[in-house]
Structure to design on (149 residues):
């Protein structure tokens, strides 16, 4: 049985989904359902942290392509952060590296979530408009504003 673990964080109109495990034909529906739900909230930026993805097949890759297209249609920037070697390899082999740039904005969003709020434990904080994103240098999202470079 393939296992896919995901955590989701929201702050200031942005969303971060941290994905761990195998992204393949059996786990694709779970990823798609989670990301489509988040896209329905219309975040300005959605960052997929793929640093803990241990395996990805063609169906997992197709999920990323479809989700990116849906994000663009909804006015959301879909960015990647911490791309694992298996994901980087398949993106390179298929020529899709250019379609999924790992940008400074993705790193800024991820780092904003990496700092817990005062009084909140765990590896990720919720973030707030006056704190984490202000310190990250990433502007707040405003109604479909795209941060994609």
């Amino acid at each position: 049985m393939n296992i896919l673990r995901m955590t989701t964080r929201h702050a200031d109109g942005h969303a971060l989904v941290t994905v761990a495990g195998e992204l393949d034909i059996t786990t694709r529906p779970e990823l798609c359902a989670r990301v489509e739900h988040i896209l329905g909230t219309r975040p300005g930026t959605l960052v997929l942290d793929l640093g803990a993805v241990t395996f990805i097949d063609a169906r997992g890759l197709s999920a990323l392509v479809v989700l990116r297209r849906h994000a663009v249609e909804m006015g959301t920037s879909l960015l990647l952060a911490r791309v694992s070697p298996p994901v980087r390899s398949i993106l390179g082999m298929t020529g899709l590296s250019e379609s999924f740039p790992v940008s400074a904005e993705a790193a800024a969003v991820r780092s904003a979530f990496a700092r817990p709020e005062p009084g909140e434990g765990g590896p990720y904080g919720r973030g707030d408009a006056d704190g984490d994103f202000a310190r990250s240098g990433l502007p707040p999202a405003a109604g479909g504003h795209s941060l994609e470079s």
